[in-house]
Specification:
- This protein is α+β, with helices and mostly antiparallel strands and 146 residues long.
- Helix content is 26%, strand content 19%.
- The protein is built from 4 helices and 5 strands.
- The strands form 2 sheets. The chain has a 3-stranded mixed β-sheet, covered by helices on one side. It has a two-stranded antiparallel ribbon with strand order 2-3.
- This is 21381_t:CDS:1.
- It comes from Gigaspora margarita.
Amino acid sequence: MHPTLQLFAKKIREQHVKRGLFASGRLKYLYPKSDPLPDPPPKPPKIKKVKKEPPWMVQQTYKQALTGLYAGKHIQYGNQISEFGNKSRRTWRPNVQKVKLYSEALNDKIPIKVTPLALKIMDRKGGLDKYLLSMRDKDLGEPIPE
């Protein structure tokens, strides 16, 4: 018998006892008894989930940005609206330029892809080397496995 039916039958038996529906000390209705269920195995401890930021708050860098200095610029998305109000999706890609920049540490010019914003920041900092030293490790990208 299913465990919930056993509980239901036990509840009815108790009601019969309270109401005096026993005839000469035996139950009016007999319910089959079954063996008690074995204890369930212990549950594994719960692992707390790390709360992630919603995807609209996190701007992920796209693969092309890993090949140059983009200064945080990303592909942007929006609607192109015609004269008649028709909307169609479009993208705005960053303005990427191929430039040769001089590195004082290497004493050589390095061909690299950059955005105009990155060039402007490099001018403020005082060159490519000082710009790279001022960047956070997270912004420099993941290290290349050896």
